[in-house]
Amino acid sequence: MQEADTLEDDALSFEEFAASVRAKEAMLYSVYDEIDSQQRGRIGRRHLEWGLRRVELRTGRYGVRKQISRSGVVKMMKLLGGRRHIDREEFRDLLIMLPAKDLVTVSPYYMKVRAGCL
After folding, report:
1. What is the pLDDT of residue 3?
2. How many domains does the chain have?
3. Which listed residue, of 38, 73, 83, 87, carries a Cα 20 to 30 Å from 113's Cα?
4. 72 and 25 in contact (C-beta within 8 Å)?
5. Residue 86 in 3-state DSSP?
6. The domain that contains 6 carries what CATH number?
7. Residue 69's domain spans which residues?
8. Cβ atoms 77, 45 nearer than 8 A
9. What per-residue confidence (pLDDT) applies to 7?
10. pTM of this prediction?
11. How far is CA 103 from CA 16, 48, 56, 58, in A?
12. Are 57 and 81 in contact (CB under 8 A)?
């Protein structure tokens, strides 16, 4: 929650916490809307899995780009159980519970090129 500590006083006020939660919720809804591009109000299992493998999330104080690891996508799909579709709120709840270890940093293009040249 370090990114939520906007006053940088090593304490998290209720207002800072609430603002952080609202911002994360808005970000997750935006990601859902990208996956549900046809605006059906629900996403099927195959389309959800496809979308989760491609989504990028901004995390931390500096907005580092992260993607969900393959094992993270598999875990999330298992959590759905036998459900064939997921709606906006279920999607939000699913991603809120995603452990940080299931996110991998997306390397910027220039880092990949530079690393390949050394």
Report:
1. 62
2. 1
3. 73
4. no
5. strand
6. 1.10.238
7. 2-117
8. yes
9. 65
10. 0.66
11. 24, 17, 10, 11
12. no
Q: How many residues does the chain have?
A: 118
The one-letter code for the residue type at 101 is K
CA distance 62 to 22: 18
**Exposed, middle or buried by CB within 10 Å (0-12, 13-18, 19+), for 65?**
middle
Q: Tokens at residue 70, please?
A: 């393959």
Residue 110: what pLDDT? 43
**Interacting residues of 8 by C-beta distance below 8 A, sequence separation 6+:** none
